[in-house]
Amino acid sequence: MRILIVNPNTTEALTSLMVETGRVAAAPDTELIGLTARRGFPYISGRAEAQIAGAIALEMLAEAHAGADGAIIAAYGDPGLHGARAMFEIPVVGVSEAAMLTACMLGDRFAIVTFAPALAAWYRDCVAIHGLVQRCAGIVAIEQSFSSIVDVQDDNLDALVALANWTITDKGADVMIFAGAPLSGLASKARSRIPAPIVEPIAAAVKQVEALVALRPRKAATGSAARPAAKASVGLPPSLAAYLANADA
Amino acid sequence: MRILIVNPNTTEALTSLMVETGRVAAAPDTELIGLTARRGFPYISGRAEAQIAGAIALEMLAEAHAGADGAIIAAYGDPGLHGARAMFEIPVVGVSEAAMLTACMLGDRFAIVTFAPALAAWYRDCVAIHGLVQRCAGIVAIEQSFSSIVDVQDDNLDALVALANWTITDKGADVMIFAGAPLSGLASKARSRIPAPIVEPIAAAVKQVEALVALRPRKAATGSAARPAAKASVGLPPSLAAYLANADA
Amino acid sequence: MRILIVNPNTTEALTSLMVETGRVAAAPDTELIGLTARRGFPYISGRAEAQIAGAIALEMLAEAHAGADGAIIAAYGDPGLHGARAMFEIPVVGVSEAAMLTACMLGDRFAIVTFAPALAAWYRDCVAIHGLVQRCAGIVAIEQSFSSIVDVQDDNLDALVALANWTITDKGADVMIFAGAPLSGLASKARSRIPAPIVEPIAAAVKQVEALVALRPRKAATGSAARPAAKASVGLPPSLAAYLANADA
Amino acid sequence: MRILIVNPNTTEALTSLMVETGRVAAAPDTELIGLTARRGFPYISGRAEAQIAGAIALEMLAEAHAGADGAIIAAYGDPGLHGARAMFEIPVVGVSEAAMLTACMLGDRFAIVTFAPALAAWYRDCVAIHGLVQRCAGIVAIEQSFSSIVDVQDDNLDALVALANWTITDKGADVMIFAGAPLSGLASKARSRIPAPIVEPIAAAVKQVEALVALRPRKAATGSAARPAAKASVGLPPSLAAYLANADA
Amino acid sequence: MRILIVNPNTTEALTSLMVETGRVAAAPDTELIGLTARRGFPYISGRAEAQIAGAIALEMLAEAHAGADGAIIAAYGDPGLHGARAMFEIPVVGVSEAAMLTACMLGDRFAIVTFAPALAAWYRDCVAIHGLVQRCAGIVAIEQSFSSIVDVQDDNLDALVALANWTITDKGADVMIFAGAPLSGLASKARSRIPAPIVEPIAAAVKQVEALVALRPRKAATGSAARPAAKASVGLPPSLAAYLANADA
Amino acid sequence: MRILIVNPNTTEALTSLMVETGRVAAAPDTELIGLTARRGFPYISGRAEAQIAGAIALEMLAEAHAGADGAIIAAYGDPGLHGARAMFEIPVVGVSEAAMLTACMLGDRFAIVTFAPALAAWYRDCVAIHGLVQRCAGIVAIEQSFSSIVDVQDDNLDALVALANWTITDKGADVMIFAGAPLSGLASKARSRIPAPIVEPIAAAVKQVEALVALRPRKAATGSAARPAAKASVGLPPSLAAYLANADA
User: Fold this and answer.
1) Which pLDDT band, with edges at 50, 70 and 90, does E152 fall under?
2) Is D172 left (phi over 0), alpha (psi -120 to 50) or beta?
3) How many CB atoms lie under 10 A from the CB of residue C210?
4) E102 in contact with F, Cβ within 8 Å
5) H or E segment at A20?
6) How far apart are CA E101 and CA E106, in angstroms?
7) Domain parsing of chain B, residue ranges
8) How far is CA F97 from CA A83, B94, D139, F103, in A?
């Protein structure tokens, strides 16, 4: 099974980190193919950037989807997810969506812990869009600084663990999600220091795509996940334009 | 990986049907072990029976959980699920919970189609308890009769398909769930007749337990999914009483 | 009027305490009949135990309902309530349901104050199932220990009062509910120390059953509160099995 | 026990009808005292009139509350309820509030059936203000005409019954409420023709006030139901002005 | 364009303050006409008083609406708004409604900051009635005292600013609303001390009425905002009675 | 006042139609400047296209915002709105947001009527993101075909009017919104045929931007609407990249 890990950002180190973290939980015959955006931002910090990166995710999928069995939008906040789900024949899952739905099977309410306050409003949108407000105990962020985006989790491990534990005692969180690609792999490091189950988002996403591929549901031919009618466009990247222009492609 | 399919009803034919249906989607190394209740009802039709069958599910798990890697509460409505999740160390997933969460990755809103109006209020509770009201386009039931519980899906295939299609056109459903153990396996039969993806509940549950086992989250030590403190009891089945009496067992 | 106070736990002292507390508010011609479970737990601490105790409540009612005018599920969290409401011809009210609905007539939002954090997730379910989330200012628990379940309220009176007052100042609670059978009778002790009205749950339940009996609504013949169709069973207590087997009994 | 039935409309026949209907369910020692507005409208048909009639209800209570044990705002939609609850020391219950809360103990979801479409938006507000949207299966109105407000129920019995039955089959209603003072007493006439329990609003209100009086909760000294601070006014009816001017009166 | 600023309280200084504050944002050709209640309270502090003042607002509009192009209910909590909107042909907007809807275009969630805790429950109603709970980060009040109602904002500027800033850091508020007529004009004074946009309620209301007048939507002839059918009354102020008596007036 | 009407589609005729429709309601000194996307789609039909067009809207604003006083995202569904609101110093309003918020002041619940079923899921997202689900009576679409996107409203006037009237009688809608740029100007044509007020979306958006400009709230320096920190990028259009790279630009 070939699963695309679509990182709509330009930082290859984050793609590698996610592929590596996802591999730990993947089935033996699952091949994870990391894709890093060739244009866009080193990291998405909010809704404006997510708007742009979501469009880039669609470009990346238009180019790479052939031959894949499923795909993951590998940026927390799931930029471009609903569009991708509708456009492509293969299952597409968002890393935050997968983390939250998986968390729902481990306890009543999950907390989302992240590393920058600016991410909060965007993640709040994400919880709301997925209809999971009732299952969310809170969305919290440390305020510490960090030396570089790839060092965030090591620079701030203690603060992240402390904040996670605070959501348990003060917000009644039952399950923990460390959100944001730079926190990939943190679940295993924090495991012994937090008394609640922790969902590793990219690993959860890999398992959820594997599940959808195994279940083999038909592609929606109607409704919100159906492929849009063929449409002409101007000035879009060629693969994307070609795919959108031909509903049968 | 050994997964228990805990059917809290007494009809072995339904257990077999679920094991067989689940096997189609299971990983090669997954062993599905069907358990049929030795006491209780041939089939659960509502909340009173679910109250009783949920307690029976806990008895069954107390007896059989050792050596298993995960378990499925294999009756729609998930009787006993939250209790089981808290009590046992292994992941426990409900068949309706798994179907709904899986459906969330295939479209905005799922419909639940079942075979008896009496099931509706109970399933509505189930959607609400899982916090998924916003994702549910409707819960509907045919009113036809059937010769026996195991023949329900064949006796009523056309009516079920028609009702499912009605939820698409009239309720805006994007994804379909045929709910109730007797409808296990219906997804593949109806696939060509319904333009939306259909989630096969027991198959989805197998994949979700496999996912949780692969992710290896720690058992909750606090919160709503933590194991209850040891407690004495009177008059409960011996395995259940022993398990509850010793928090370290 | 004969009202059953069905304590689905095995501690007779709690049954007595509830009967006695309920009597203060009962009408002159109301007879309160306390029933203590012959099997189960000395006290229910969460969802697993409530699953089992709820089934026991149905057994108790199957045995004792004849000749009664109404019944109260006398354990906070209302284990077995919806099943009992459907199964029996007489009105059945839950002690938490009655407390919350009564509180709604005394102010905008009630707080639920209890004596063990483990009860919180279960009580949260209870508020949600009754559709009263919007009316609930918070569910809080002291963390103190206690010498025995019947001494909880005396051992912790000051802490419970302080916590209740905190829900007023910090959560905007307008009405107070001390939840849990062991806190029966606390309302009168705390009355002078809390500036909000306090609802005594078992007393509220007695009044609500009296109200339903006086109003004499017909038994539902359809919908979520209708009696389930007759159903065979195996291995259930004889009274319960017989009642379930014969819809006309 | 002296309970005021405060009809904030000017039609004495409706007051009489409500007193008479309430008496059937009242306790032997309960005295129901009907009060009819001396100014205002013969009947309230919407929010503008309810705004005015709610203020009149406060005037009526300021004049009549002394010596009473409790009061009912006896117009569906509960005009003036929250103000009255805060202002007076005695328990005050709204007839729609009482009907809905009582209905909650008889099934999952109630329908509200009334006799004029113009009432719907106002009643929808009422359900929302009481936080009971989740418990409401629908608010529906017949469109027939009627010869006079007191003849509404007899002129339209068949249509009202048919509409009520439609809410059961099409909206999943479990319990029925016929709303509006002119429909007082309809519950008993329709009982044999509707397969769901019917709550008689004024009777439910009588029982709920009796319950609150028996429970003897203290008056709120803080929060949304606390008595407002003393306040001067100009041009209000003397009893009302005097009461508001003196917080200790 | 002639816009009525209907202050349903008797304090002319507040009317003047609101007219003056509204004028800053008004279009050049907008004439703001302040109306002060001739009966009622110097200031509304809660739901009881709002019930009465809302009826007074309708009296004031019945008398003054002729020749006006639009009107503002100029007391926070919008007493009488829905009745007024239905009764009159001209657009009527509430000052709190306008503030909240305008705030929605400046950020995800607004906070409401006011000067007396007693106002909170009433304002909470107001947010709920307008269906904006999801957009509201919190409703908070200072507890300081003040020398007179018109001096509230100057006596408490620092405390109000501090509380507003707290809703940003602790509640995630994005936009600020200082609520209550006595706080009119505070937005500009606090502008440099709060890092979020502040909506000046009366100014927002002026702009919203101007917008509605410019858009020229037809008056509703059906539904919740349609003019009530003509109705006789007794004992109401003559202008109000006459207007209500004649649907064509 | 210079207001940009940012049409993120490539059809100039729709831009012209919107500018012309908006002009009718604009203030005398308001200049409406229509901008048509130079790349993208002739018309957006769903979420995939909105993802891309939203990014294009940000490009257009990055290029054109200097010298403008405010801007409108002039495609129903508000693609790119939240990103634009955060990025730019000038007020930015979405045409659907403005229509819905304005509709809230004309009645309890609005209906959204559009011309293609595929738009429904996307518009449903839009209502949810703005937190206005409770105010929305329904989202409906005709299923007729049309000769070209600019002829939609003339080809289908009768069907659109009939559907709008159906939402009034069957869904309880109080206010009407015809959604989609191709329906601009329909409000005035349908006015005499629908008994509810109709909001013209682009006209409402013009008035709302005018209102925000007149109110002069400060730009958020914190929270969900604050400008993102400066960020480098690769491969984005130069104006957009430059703007994002320099938080002080």
Assistant:
1) confident
2) left
3) 26
4) yes
5) helix A12-23
6) 9
7) 2-96+204-245, 97-200
8) 21, 39, 29, 10
Confidence of residue F143 (pLDDT cuts 50, 70, 90): confident
What is the predicted pLDDT for the residue at A247?
54
Give φ, ψ of D94 to 5 degrees: -90, 150
Q: Which tokens in the block code for residue A23?
A: 């591999």
| Cβ-defined contact of E174 to A124 (cutoff 8 Å) | no
Q: Which phi and psi angles does E22 have, rounded to 5°?
A: -70, -30
Q: Which CATH number among 1.10.150.20, 3.40.50.2300, 3.40.50.300, 3.40.50.12500 corresponds to the domain F97-200?
A: 3.40.50.12500
Residues E64 and E231: their CA atoms lie apart, in Å, by 20
Q: Does C173 touch chain E (CB under 8 A)?
A: no
Check pLDDT > 80 for residue E144: no
Residue of C nearest to A170 (CA): C140
- Taking contacts as CB-CB distances below 8 angstroms, the residues of chain C near A171 are none
Report the C-alpha gap between A90 and A157 in whole angstroms.
36
User: Model confidence over D83-115: pLDDT tens digits?
Assistant: 999 999 999 999 999 999 999 999 999 999 999
The CA distance from A73 to A81, in Å, is 6
Per-residue pLDDT tens over the stretch C72-121? 999 999 999 999 999 999 999 999 999 999 999 999 999 999 998 888 88
| Residue A156 structure tokens | 């701030």
**Contact between A84 and A68 (Cβ < 8 Å):** no
CATH 3.40.50.12500 fits C2-96+204-245, yes or no: yes
- B/F Cβ contact: 3+ pairs below 8 Å: yes
D52 vs E: CB within 8 A: yes
- The answer to whether A179 and A113 are in contact (CB under 8 A) is yes
Instruction: Identify the residue whose tokens are 């816009």.
Output: E3
Degrees, nearest 5: CA angle B246-B247-B249: 65
Strand partners, B6: B35, B73
What is the average per-residue pLDDT within B123-149? 90
E69 at the D interface (CB within 8 A)?
no
**D239 in contact with E, Cβ within 8 Å:** no
- Same fold across D2-96+204-245 and D97-200: yes
B150-206 residue pLDDT tens? 888 888 999 999 999 999 999 999 999 999 999 999 999 999 999 999 999 999 999
C88: Cβ–Cβ under 8 A, 6 or more apart, which residues?
Answer: C61, C65, C71, C227
Q: Which DSSP category does D40 fall into?
A: B
Q: Which residues pair with D198 in a beta bridge?
A: D176
Residues of F in contact with E200 (CB under 8 A): 215
Which one, of D74, D170, D71, D73, lies nearest residue D113 by Cα? D170
Q: Which of B245-249, E114-118, E205-209 has the lowest mean pLDDT?
A: B245-249
Interface of A with B in 205-234 (CB under 8 A): 207-208, 210-212, 214-225
Judge: C207–D204 Cβ closer than 8 Å, yes or no.
no
Torsion angle of the four alpha carbons E80, E82, E86, E89, in this order, in degrees rounded to the nearest 10: 70
List the one residue out of A94, A95, A88 whose CA is nearest residue A182.
A95
Touch of C by F (3+ CB pairs closer than 8 Å): no
Residue (of A188, A177, A51) closest to A110 by Cα position: A177
User: Cβ contacts of residue F219 below 8 Å, gap of 6+?
Assistant: E197, F89, F226, F227
